[in-house]
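Example record

The entry below shows one chain as it appears in the dataset: sequence first, then C-alpha cells.
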Amino acid sequence: MRRVLTQFDAWRRQSSPLVLATVCGTAGSTYSKTGQRVLFEPESGHHAGLVSGGCLETDLAAHASDVLRDQQARLVQYDLRDPDQELFGLATGCRGMLEILLQPLLPSLGYEPFARIGAWQMEGRSGTCAVVIESTDPEVPPGATLLYAEGCSFAHGLSGPASRALDSALGLQDDGARRKRVALPGNRHCIVQVTAIRPLPRLLVIGSGLDAVPLVNLARELGFLVTVADHREAQLNDGRFAAADQRQCSPPGQLPTNEPFDAVVVMTHHLPSDRAWLAALSGSRCRYLGLLGPAARRSELLASLGERGSQLATRIHGPAGLPIGSDSPESIALSILAEIQWVLSPRPIEAREPHVAQA
C-alpha cells in the first residue's frame, strides 16, 4: 500500500484524474482479498498496485477509462470459477471470483475518498470504509462513501440528509469486512460493502550495525514506515540508512515518543545497550518484539531485568526470525520480516507456536 500512496502523491502533484479500484468481494482462489485498493491513471494507462497477478489489470484499465469519462462508479465482476470458461481470453487459471468497484478520483473534489483513506493510513489511524456498491436511491449513488476512524467520520458523494440516514442505518465502528443491505426512506435501499482501513505498519529497528541495513531496506520495500534508533550518531547518519523514514540518535533506552510501533527489533550487539532497550520496551504495546542473538544470550538478558524480564519472557521473539537456515545479513533480514508479517497479519494463519527461545 505504501507504493500505491507514493504513486498517488506523484499523480496528485500533476493534477491527474484517477480511478480507485477496490476489491469488494471474492470467492474461491483469488490473488487479492476484500479491501485491496489499486489506483489507475487512465491517461497514461499506468496503475499502482495489483488486484491480480497482472491478469486483470489491462481489462480493468479499460473500465477505468469509461468510469472517468462518465464520472460514475461502476462494479465489475470477474468470475473465473468455471474451468470451461476463459473470461475475456484471460485464462488466468485462478478459479476464483472478484467483484471490484471503480470510483473516479477527481482533482476538483480533492481526490476523495482516497485522499482521506491514504492520509489516515500514513497517520497510523485504523478505521472503516463503507462504500455503496448498489442503490435504488439517487441520493445515495454507487460510490458514495462513509469513512470512520477513532471517533471521527467523513462522507463523500452524499448530501447531508442522505449521509445522516446512511450513517444511522450502518452504525459502524468496527474494522470488519462485510456486506450489508440498508433500508432507506421512501421504500428504497442500497448495498454497502464495508472494508477495513489499516495503517501502514511501523517498525523500529534498534541498532545501526551493518546487519541492520538490509533489514531497513527490505522493510521499506515491503511498505513499512521505518525508524532506526541508536546512540552512535556517526553510524546513523553515514548514508547507509537513507531508506529509513526517521533516524533517532539517543541514549540506550530512550524510545521515540512521537508514534507507536507495531514491531520492534533490538539488534545493538551490545549487552548493556540491549538491556536498557528491553527495560524500556517492557511496557510497550508493540505486537512484535524481536531480539537478535542466541537463546542463551536472551535468557541472560531477561534474567538480569528481574520483573521486567518476566513481563517480556512470554512475548519476546528470540532469536528473532523464522528458522529458515539464514546465514547472511540479507537472509536474516528476510527471516525476521517473515516472522513480523506472520505476527501482524490480520488474516487467519495456520496455527503454530511463536519462534521463541530456541537453543
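Notes for this example: The CA atoms of residues 237 and 247 lie 8 Å apart. The chain has three domains: 1-104, 112-199, 202-344.
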